[in-house]
Write a structure and sequence with these properties.
alpha/beta, Rossmann fold, 2 domains, 7-stranded parallel beta sheet, 6-stranded parallel beta sheet, globular
Length: 405
Amino acid sequence: MKILYLDVVCKQGSTGKIVYDLYAQSRADGHTAAVCYGRGPVVAEENIFKFGLDWETRFHALMTRLTGWTGCFSPVSTRRLIRFMEAFRPDVVHIHELHAYFVSLKPLLRYLAERRIPVVHTLHCEFSYTGKCGHSYECQRWKSGCGACPHLRDYPKTLWFDRTAAMWAEKKRLFSALDKLVVTVPSRWLADRARQSFLGTREVCVVHNGIDTAHIFHPQSCGHLREKYHIKPEEKVVLAVAPDLMSPQKGGRWVLKLAQEMRQENIRFVLVGVSNLSEAFPPHVTAVGLIRDQEELAAHYSLADCFVICSERETFSMTCAEAFCCGTPVAGFTAGGAVETVPPPWGRFCSYGDVARLAELVRETLARTPDPENAAARGRALYDKNVMYRAYRDIYESLLGDGRL
């Protein structure tokens, strides 16, 4: 079987790591695999191709801001992608993210439809069934056609023009033309949304995102971090992790409100992913920049007695899954699919913005934390990358259904 994986990045970011893991595991399983991606550093490995041109990505972003259209200003990059596919001749194309100004949707999806290539499309957000938005939040217009968009200034940002009705209709036409399409999602919450969209006419399957639980995300030694951050032996540690954690979408300000709520308790809050480290934080809050080293990140998860997530919306939560696989229980807001990521008794969730209730859940977690090894074992069973790969392999084989394995 020849599988081509398509994403915005490769070997970095949550989706880029997932795509690379699938590429590596399918090759180890005896299949031929390729990765095509649009942005980030060049990955010099067999059949990994950065087709996106950086200058065209910048042009695409600028034109989206000026015109309101997105997913249509990367013609040169998209031709490079199609030429690679023509030479590689995949049996299955597995598409991940399609936003981020790196590909033109119409020529790509038309090519796949004309060649009748089976497609698996993993939704990591809502972009593929909305006019433009990655997260629709309270808006329900995507169910019937978009237009009058309340989030024009949100990513992918436009300054003046609302093209969301036309882009929604175009996506519906393009995806409807695909002969064989299976839509996969990482959570039941997103599956419910997808089934209410125009993609709901196709098969929608839940496949949890996978992580490396064997070599990275497992309980690790973390004594060096207690020394580094001058954490007292009697202090409990509450951890929050996200890229640009202090942004409204990632909820860092809610974590600070939680820290204020619990300021009289013997707790150190560690915030990882803070962009502005010059900002003043309370004495019991330690701010840390983005951690790219995955083993060091796993050590931070292992350091924590409780991981908190306060995002405005998550379709899944890789950070919750990673913390869980490191043996750390989770408390947070029920915003999107994060609530599904960590089952009871390791996961405790409350309504979005209810800081007082979240503080109660953190106290319960710190008082009655289950054995970390049991948590890690349950996390491995749910989220090990081999579990993810086997689920996708079964979908590929089902789509082909003709012995080309």
